[in-house]
Every structure is written in structure tokens, then in C-alpha cells.
Amino acid sequence: MPEGDTVWQTARRLHTALAGHLLTRFDLRVPKYATADLTGRTVLDVTPRGKHLLTRIDGGLTLHSHLQMDGSWKVYAPGERWSGGPGHQIRAILGTAERTAVGYRLPVLELLRTTDEHRAVGHLGPDLLGPDWDPDKALENLLHDPARPLGEALLDQRNLAGIGNVYKSELCFLLRTSPWLPIGQLPGERAAQLPTLARKLLEANRDRPIRSTTGHRDQNHYVYGRAPRPCLRCRTSIRVASQGDGSRERPTYWCPACQPGPAPQTRTEPSRTHN
After folding, report:
1. Catalytic residue at 206?
2. Out of 48, 49, 51, 126, which one is annotated catalytic?
3. Does the annotation count 25 as an active-site position?
4. pLDDT tens digit sequence for 255-264
5. Hey, which CATH number is domain 135-254, 1.10.3720.10, 3.40.630.10, 1.10.8.50, 3.40.50.720?
6. How far apart are CA 1 and CA 274, in angstroms?
């Protein structure tokens, strides 16, 4: 699932394929921009911002996209078969003489003035993989609402940008803390290390084709997707339950022995979940 590291990798692929090249094809398959035509213009850069992608094009325009849960950008060489999904899922096509970038299942796609990018990303907290990273500000944001459960606070992109459901679960495990613990009750030394640990995990994975938070080849995650299998640390069965992020419920994984603290009633998932 796309999180900050995935978006960073996507931006790098798009930038390598498109930046500095003239657009020979520009097709946005959403009603609002169906007639937009930027062919003949040069792509200046593709920049990630948290989970958002900003494709800047000369003439002062930016194509803003967000992958959310299922979106993706694929890059193809001339003549290469497009394989990112059926044609009706294509939302954007940006083509040059040498490469074509195709956006599939993009739930957010809008054309902005570059000077108006703040409308799309101005609400975001410090970007874990960006030049604006500020661990002190990120921690201040997280602690602003001390009664909020830790897992929810981590998913709120206004606090710090780039964490999704995988990193939320893995961070709480590494901090040995329940995702339902009010963040204001997180011991001071653990709270202090949280932003640095989060950045360390994303930085370690931004160049990896397969995400790993454990460092072990045979097991990529400590808890995420592993219910009801045994914890790698203590052998207790991993649990999973829904937890909100302010917009929807998401599955949260944790070890009840290694991560003491508040916990909801739980359900378990079959062992064929993400590894």
C-alpha cells in the first residue's frame, strides 16, 4: 500500500522519465480536465510531498495526484504493453518521445497553478522524506492533542507527512506501546525518539523494492499483516482491530504482550495477509 516511501519512489521514477522532456501526449480522464491539453510543454520536475505527488510543468502549472489506497503510476517505453490495470482505470497519461507515464485508479487528480500548491499540500506537517523535515515540530504537532490515541495521531498527515497503516503499526511495536494509548501518556524518552525512528524506517525503505521494518529477509514486518501468527519477539499471537484515523476505520496490528496498554475488542485475520 502506498506510504511515504512508495510515493518517494514513484516520484523518482516519474522525474527520471519525464523531467526535462516535452510532452507529446497529455490526457486527463476526469471530467473537469477532459479538455486540458499541455502537449508541447516541458515537465520541470516531479516532487513528492508526504503521500502527494506534484508534477510541475512549464507555464506555471502543477498536476497534483494522490495514490490513496489503490492508485499507482506506471512508466512504459515505446511499444511496451501497459499492464497497470484495465483501460477504464486509467486516469492520466503523460507521454514524451521516450517514455509514457500512466496513472491508474488515481482518486485525486487536479491541475493547479504552481503558486497554488499550498491548496493541496499546505496542511501537511513536516515531510519525513522531505527537505522540510523538522523532528521537533513533528513531535510538537503529535502532542498537541494529548488525549488522542497514538495510532490515530501518527496517521494524521497534519502532524507529520508520510506515515500510513504499515508504519503506524510497526512504529507502535518498536516503541513497545499500544496504538490506543493516549499520546500524551507516552513516556518522555519514547516520545522523543518517535520522530527520529519514523524517519529512520522510511529512509531505510525508500530505495528498497520490498518494504522491510525488521531487517530480516524471511520476515518483512513485526506485526503488520501477521495476525494471528506469533510475535517474532515473544511468540504471543498478534492481534488486529479497527482504529480510526479521523476519516475511516483501518486495521491496526499489535502484540498485546510486547505493547501493553489500552486495547479494544479484537478480531483476527487469516495468516494469508500481507507479510
Report:
1. no
2. 51
3. no
4. 999 999 999 8
5. 1.10.8.50
6. 10
